[in-house]
């Protein structure tokens, strides 16, 4: 929430006549938080795949076995 939005929220909360404005500010903020969470979760899944991929590269090198292929990891869930 921006400083401007916080100021608007505090002003609206101080005036019971502005309950609609308070709800609107909070609803908008909540929606942005949900969008940010979805993006963070998407990024977390991608990072988790990369971590697994590079650990598997390390293991393959240590064991002199076949190297993993990123295409096998791109759409997998870990």
SSE arrangement, N to C: HH
| Count of DSSP H/I helices | 2
Which consecutive residue ranges, at least 5 long each, have pLDDT under 50? none
List how many beta strands DSSP finds.
0
Name the shape in a single word.
Answer: rod-shaped
Distance between the termini: 33 Å
* Biggest pleated-sheet summary: none
Backbone CA Rg: 23 Å
Question: Strand percentage, roughly?
Answer: under 5%
Number of domains: 1
InterPro entries: DNA-bd_dom_put_sf
Coiled coil: 23-50
Keywords: Coiled coil
Protein name: MerR family transcriptional regulator
List the helices and strands and how they pair.
Layout: H1 3-13, H2 19-63
Helix pairs in contact: 1-2
Note the main attributes of this structure.
78 residues, mainly alpha, rod-shaped
What does this 3D model show about the protein?
With 78 residues, this protein is mainly α. The chain has one domain. The chain is built from two helices and no strands. It has helices at residues 3-13, 19-63. Helix 1 runs antiparallel to helix 2. The chain starts with a helix and ends in a 15-residue tail after the last helix. The relative contact order is 0.08. The model has no long low-confidence stretch (mean pLDDT 93). Keywords: Coiled coil. This is MerR family transcriptional regulator.
What would you say about this model in short?
Keywords: Coiled coil. The chain has 78 residues and is mainly alpha-helical.
């Amino acid at each position: 929430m921006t400083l401007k939005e916080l100021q608007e929220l505090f002003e609206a909360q101080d005036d019971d006549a502005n309950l609609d404005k308070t709800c609107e500010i909070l609803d908008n903020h909540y929606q942005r938080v949900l969008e940010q969470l979805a993006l963070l979760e998407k990024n977390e899944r991608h990072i988790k795949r990369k971590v697994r991929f590079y650990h598997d590269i390390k293991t393959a090198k240590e064991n002199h076995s076949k190297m993993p292929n990123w295409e096998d990891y791109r759409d997998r869930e870990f």
